[in-house]
TrEMBL record:
SUPFAM superfamilies: CheY-like, Homeodomain-like, P-loop containing nucleoside triphosphate hydrolases. It comes from the Bacteria. It comes from Trichlorobacter lovleyi (strain ATCC BAA-1151 / DSM 17278 / SZ). Residues 146-375 form the Sigma-54 factor interaction domain. Keywords: ATP-binding, Nucleotide-binding, Phosphoprotein, Transcription, Transcription regulation. This is Two component, sigma54 specific, transcriptional regulator, Fis family. Coiled coil: none annotated. GO terms for biological process: phosphorelay signal transduction system; regulation of DNA-templated transcription. Gene3D superfamilies: 1.10.8.60, 3.40.50.2300, Homeodomain-like, P-loop containing nucleotide triphosphate hydrolases. PANTHER family: SIGMA L-DEPENDENT TRANSCRIPTIONAL REGULATOR YPLP-RELATED, TRANSCRIPTIONAL REGULATORY PROTEIN.
């Protein structure tokens, strides 16, 4: 029996909720719930999980983008579609950057809605096919050890699955720490070569003299110290995959030897005459701009084209910020279990800082920072004091306001306090929620309860 996809539809216009529910809810593949405001949507999600949230963009109090960011930080696994009647691209771009999966124009065309849902479901199925066993029961998306459910990552997963079926040479580019090595091993793991060796070598770490003998092997007596015949990596990886990391750093001589292998499919050991057939899939990675290096004649252009049969670009973390909460959770679990620590989560303030930082070192930097914080943290929650100064000072949203919440326990005091904070933060709801140290959804709920609205 297939489980129905749970959809939460959010719109302040009841008519839209009714129409949506009637039409999409009639399909047994879907279970539709509706909410008339952002606060109601967040309330509903607490009790009734959803796979997909479809939300209007312009709603009073909490708009679609605010709801989207709130859902992304609380339930990163949910897919979000934005509805907008305003085709001004700036709002749509903002929503997409905040992690919306796609957007739909209002008044909506049901065929479009169904197509978007179908795309999400097929992406989900593609990921599920590559899910790590330990993630099958979890809510997070893990494709062969790669974490992320931003659209850019789905595109990478799809390319990995496609290219894995072939023996084509793959060039993976991307900044340092973006997961190039994980992508390479995912290609191997999904390919028919998976039971054969996956051998990797960091080309930058080998001297000019060593690299040829490492790659191609040598015959006994080929050079001083070659006391016996040695198989090179091309032979060791036979039938499997050879991953040449930092390929941008190989010397012109090695570039010629590699080109030869790629053109002829054969090689010879150093000092040998026997021609050996190379049965390996080659995957190369670099954080250099190899195309530019080829244009500037720093890297052989012919080799560049041979290596770049299929190219995969690992996106920088700042271009998929919506994955940050997911990665934080993942690294937190990983380092807690490695270090025997019990930490349940990250405070809202700390998560905001983590989501706003630009991550020049990408996932590796995030992993290191969480590991450091886990090791040195004494409490059950990571707060912003456990983050290094470069992250704390990158806070774009802090304000100098400090509050004593000790008196804010009674309803009237609470209402007065919220009103004061809203005024002091110029009715910037995000800032007010941060100052009050409550979730934005809670703030909206309380504003509704105490009838607090921005004066016009
Ligand atoms: N999508 C991801 N999900 C989970 N962990 C990731 C992801 N991307 C990178 N990492 C983690 O970040 C670290 C760096 O990843 P990796 O070595 O694959 O990056 P790289 O692009 O090869 O970096 P470099 O260019 O410096 O060699 C590793 O600890 C890896 O587990
Ligand atoms: Mg690497």
């Amino acid at each position: 029996m297939t489980v129905a996809t749970r959809i939460l539809f959010v719109d302040d216009e009841p008519a839209y909720c009714r129409i949506f529910s009637k039409r999409i809810g009639a399909d047994p593949r879907f279970r539709v719930e509706t909410a008339g405001s952002g606060a109601e949507a967040l309330e509903r999600l607490q009790h009734s999980p959803a796979d997909i949230v479809i939300t209007d963009l312009s709603m009073p109090l909490m708009d679609g983008i605010e709801l989207l960011s709130e859902i992304k930080s609380l339930y990163p696994q949910i897919f979000i579609l934005i509805l907008t009647s305003d085709d001004s691209t700036s709002q749509v771009v903002k929503a997409m950057k905040a992690g919306a999966y796609d957007y739909l124009l209002k008044p909506f065309d049901f065929e479009m809605v169904e197509r978007s849902i179908a795309t999400i479901l097929s992406h989900k199925a593609a990921v599920q096919a590559g899910l790590c066993p330990e993630c099958l029961s979890g809510e997070q998306y893990c494709f062969e050890n790669l974490i992320g459910q931003d659209r850019k990552m789905f595109e990478i997963y799809e390319m990995i699955s496609q290219v894995a079926q072939t023996s084509a040479t793959v060039l993976i580019t991307g900044e340092s720490g973006t997961g190039k090595e994980l992508i390479a091993s995912a290609i191997h793991a999904k390919s028919t070569r998976k039971d054969k060796p996956f051998i990797q070598i960091n080309c930058a770490a080998l001297t000019e003299g060593l690299i040829s003998s490492e790659l191609f092997g040598h015959e006994k007596g080929a050079f001083t110290g070659a006391v016996a015949r040695k198989k090179g990596l091309f032979e060791q990886a036979s039938g499997g995959t050879l991953f040449l990391d930092e390929i941008g750093d190989i010397s012109p001589t090695t570039q010629v030897s590699l080109l030869r292998i790629l053109e002829l499919g054969t090689f010879q050991r150093v000092g040998g005459t026997e021609t050996i057939k190379a049965d390996v899939r080659l995957i190369c990675a670099t954080n250099r701009d190899l195309a530019a290096a080829a244009r500037e004649k720093q890297f052989r252009e012919d080799l560049y084209y041979r290596l770049n049969v299929v190219s995969l670009q690992a996106p920088p973390l700042r271009d998929r910020r919506s994955d940050i909460p997911l990665l934080v959770r993942y690294f937190l679990e990983r380092y807690c279990s490695l270090n025997n620590k019990q930490i349940d989560g990250v405070t809202r303030d700390a998560m905001t800082l983590l989501c706003n930082y630009d991550w020049p070192g990408n996932c590796r930097e995030l992993a290191n920072i969480i590991e450091h914080a886990v090791i040195f943290s004494r409490g059950r929650t990571l707060d912003k004091d456990s983050l290094p100064s470069q992250i704390r000072t990158s806070d774009r949203h802090s304000s100098g306001l400090t509050l004593n919440l000790a008196t804010a326990t009674l309803a009237d005091a609470e209402s007065a306090l919220i009103k004061k904070v809203l005024e002091e933060s110029n009715w910037n709801l995000k800032k007010a929620a941060e100052l009050l140290d409550i979730a934005r959804g809670t703030l909206y709920g309380k504003m509704e309860k105490y009838h607090l609205t921005k004066p016009v």
